[in-house]
C-alpha cells in the first residue's frame, strides 16, 4: 500500500491555493472573496504542517506558524465581515465592482 508523502500534501495545498486565487480574482461577491481568502490561508497551513512533519519531525515550527495563521485568519474574517456589513448598509450591495468608496 503506497504511503502519503510530502508531494501529495503539496499538490493538495497547491490545488486549494489555486482554487482560492481563482475565486478571489474572478468572483464579485465580497463574502465569496473572503471565503476564497480563507481557502488560500488553509492551503498555506497544509503546506506549513506538511513541511514541518517531513523536514523536521521533532520540531513543531510548522504547527506553531499554522496556529498564528489561524489566529490572523479569524481576525481578518471578523474585520472583513464588519466592513462588508457597513458597506451593505450604506450601498445596499456587496458586489465588489459596484462599490465605489474612493469616489465621492
Give the helix tally.
3
Describe the main β-sheet briefly. Answer: none
**What is the rounded distance between the termini?**
63 Å
C-alpha Rg (nearest Å): 17 Å
**CATH level 1 name:** Mainly Alpha
Brief descriptors of the model:
0% strand, Helix Hairpins, 75% helix, elongated, 104 residues, mainly alpha, 3 helices
Textual characterization of the structure:
The protein is mainly alpha-helical and 104 residues long. It has a single domain, classed as Helix Hairpins, CATH 1.10.287. It has 3 helices and no strands. It is elongated and about 55 Å long. The relative contact order is 0.14. The model has no long low-confidence stretch (mean pLDDT 91).
Summary, kept brief:
The chain is mainly α and 104 residues long. The chain is built from three helices and no strands.
